[in-house]
Write a structure and sequence with these properties.
Length: 235
């Protein structure tokens, strides 16, 4: 065995994980170089985080202000991100989801006023019980739990989903918006609270809009959508 192979072998024994992307031995699901090379979301809409050439309001948000007040995502949904999130959601790679959630926690610390962040409540986007039964876990709740741990914030399962909508992905934005209305109900008191609504990916904003409207009706003061990644277009 060569010295480098021996070195790799001993690292493998010490660090039982391998980077999901480059297969190097490391202590986390991704090595530091791979984690740092992921596509960060930089210039984007100040309300819905749609990637833009420069910071400002996107056309959609200019036409109609959404029910949520902002959206924070560390990554743009491109390059390696779709595969990583797919691995987390559909292959039960929970550690990977938690690692990406840690980057979201860092971004929240960097972008939110400390006192505002400290008074926030985490609300995960719910799954219908039928979907939960087939997947076995709610990815938004895994992210919310990690954020709760890292940021020391309370988590409230404040929203219930009334029907199963598994095939939303194939619908156009307008159909999604129509489908999402009346889908969610508030479960617990969120009045006068600042809500961080947690999801895995911010796509059309239809789900975020529907839930934010319910939360605002229930008296929430502010709703900020927080997700791992934002799609480049309102698909
Ligand atoms: Zn790597
Ligand atoms: Zn926007």
């Amino acid at each position: 065995m060569s010295i480098s192979a021996l070195y790799r072998h001993s690292l493998t024994l010490l660090l039982p994980n391998h980077c999901f992307l480059c297969d190097e031995p490391c202590s986390e699901s991704l090595c530091t170089p791979c984690l740092q090379a992921l596509p960060a979301l930089t210039s984007c809409c100040s309300t819905c985080a749609l990637p833009l050439a420069s910071d400002g309001l996107c056309g959609e948000c200019q036409r109609q202000k959404p029910s949520f007040d902002g959206c924070i995502c560390p990554y743009s949904y491109q390059e390696q991100i779709p595969a990583l999130i797919n691995q987390f959601k559909h292959q039960r790679h929970i550690a990977l989801g938690k690692l990406l959630a840690q980057t979201l926690a860092v971004k929240l610390r960097a972008t939110q006023a400390a006192d505002e962040l400290a008074s926030s409540v985490l609300v995960p986007v719910p799954m219908h019980w039928r979907g939960l039964l087939s997947r076995g876990f709610n990815q938004a709740e895994v992210i919310a739990q990690e954020l709760s741990k890292r940021l020391n914030l309370p988590l409230a399962r404040a929203i219930r989903k009334k029907a199963n909508t598994r095939h939303q992905q194939n619908l156009k934005r307008k159909q999604r918006l129509n489908n999402s209305r009346n889908l969610f109900v508030a479960r617990t008191e969120t009045a006068k609270k600042r809500i961080l609504l947690v999801d895995d990916v911010m796509t059309t904003g239809a789900t975020a809009e529907a839930i934010s409207a319910v939360l605002k009706q229930a008296g929430a003061e502010q709703v900020i959508v927080v997700a791992l990644a934002r799609t480049p277009k309102n698909r």
